[in-house]
Amino acid sequence: MTRKWNNAAHGFLAVMAAAVLATLPACIMNVEYARPGQSLASHDGKGLVFSRIRFFYNGQEFFPWDPAATVRSLTDMLRDVDRTEARHIWLRRLDVTAASWQLQPDKDGSLAIWLPAGDYALVGTEDDPTQGVPLNLAVVALLRVPAGAPAVYAGELVFADEFREGWHGRYVFGSGRVTTESMATATRTLEARYGALPAPPALSAWCVGEQVPSGDNNPEFARQSRQLLDGGCRAPP
Question: Residue 35 pLDDT > 80, yes or no?
Answer without folding.
Answer: yes
